[in-house]
Specification:
With 198 residues, this protein is of the alpha+beta class. It has one domain: TcpA-like pilin (2-Layer Sandwich), CATH 3.30.1690. Helix content is 34%, strand content 24%. The strands form 2 sheets. It has a 6-stranded mixed β-sheet with strand order 3-4-8-5-6-7.
């Protein structure tokens, strides 16, 4: 059999080269999609937290819920939670993990805490660094970041804790990126808590 000199075909090296280029494009697309999905979740979380805090501060500015009244069902009935915020096992944040509100008294002032439980650490920085109010007049007192509940440092306004940042047990607000990274890289999942004055 005699081969014609004008027959053409791709060599194995050429096929592998094309496959490598297509693979690189696919990896880039998947990474881009993941970044977009993460940003959507962060935006949704910001909207959810802002909505809940605004409703708590507006509706209960002069009347505070007792601890026994703070259930997901009661908060939904009171208009604090939307129906999409409440699942079979209680309130759920946009990351699909639980959230809850609790009362506290700090230095004689009533506050409430909105807890996002067991959220992925890769969104922690964005949640803490979001615009939650640029000074204490916003009602925001503290943001906590914790790998497992109460063993954590917090971000405080200097007005509320004059020595924030100087004693190693807290950071000052507004949060600084290096402090946020330090807190957000402690564990694969974290609790984020926003503490607001009523």
């Amino acid at each position: 059999m005699i081969l014609k000199s004008n027959e053409k075909g791709a060599t194995l090296v050429e096929v592998l080269g094309v496959m490598a280029v297509l693979g690189a494009i696919a990896v880039g697309l998947f990474a881009g999609i993941a970044r977009v999905q993460k940003q959507i979740k962060i935006t949704q979380a910001h909207e959810q937290v802002t909505r809940i805090v605004k409703r708590m501060r507006t509706q209960f500015a002069s009347f505070h819920l007792t601890d026994s009244q703070i259930t997901a069902e009661n908060l939904e009935k009171a208009g604090i939670y939307d129906s999409g915020d409440v699942g079979e096992d209680g309130a759920v944040n946009v990351f699909g993990t639980s959230m809850n509100i609790e009362n506290a008294v700090v230095d004689g002032y009533p506050v409430f805490r909105l807890n996002y439980n067991a959220i992925p650490s890769n969104v922690c920085e964005d949640l803490i660094m979001s615009d939650w109010g640029d000074d204490p007049s916003s009602g925001l007192r503290t943001i906590y970041a914790a790998p497992n509940g109460p063993n954590f440092k917090a971000f405080y306004w200097k007005k509320d804790m004059a020595d924030c940042g100087s004693n190693g047990s807290s950071h000052c607000m507004p949060p600084q990126l290096d402090d946020v990274i330090e807190e957000c890289t402690r564990a694969p999942s974290l609790w984020i808590t926003w503490e607001y004055y009523y």
